[in-house]
Amino acid sequence: MINVTEEMNVVNFLFDNWLVVSIVAIIGYLLGSISFSVIFTKISNKKDIRNMGSKNAGFTNVLRSVGKMPAILTLLCDFLKGIMAILISTFFISITCGKIGDFALGHVSCIVGFFCILGHVYPCFFGFKGGKGVITSASVILMTNWCVLLAILFVFLLAFAFSRVVSFSSISAAIFYPVAALIFSVGLKDILLSIPVAILVILKHKSNIANIIGGREKKIFSW
Fold first, then answer.
1. Is the pTM of this model over 0.85?
2. Domain residue extents for the chain
């Protein structure tokens, strides 16, 4: 249920504290811009993951092109940076603006989370060439509405059980994300976050979509 009065209070807060909100959004973007797939691949074999395999700076490509340990470290750190971005911004907001209430804080967390995802996809430290944002998006959704994460995770696992293709599963989850956000929304924040994130993830998978249609997309493993 969307409370119009509370939403207007959030809008007023964002306008009144635009500088602080801008700072935490920048913090989120900078944390998101730490491309762990590139870092761990260079540590592991001195190469750039963006020149290997699918050329994507993400978990799946690291797993296929480099190995399990760098891939696991990439997955964990890409997931943690979304969590850390929101925790750090929450702390910063608390010491600069005082107690603002969970509802307003949830909206700020969505803003920070989106910029963290944007940093992951277009990292300023790595030539704006990053990953596809799936894992970092999952951590942001966990921090903003865990019910939504459970719903889209179910869709991801269902699609993966059917296809064994990570990209197809990610695209399916992204398509369902706005629907889940609408069902489990706590204010407009969930819906407003879900639409651009879903579009961004789907657009970053456009080459995968072409491969899926053409039957060329690789399965992560067979059983």
1. yes
2. 4-213
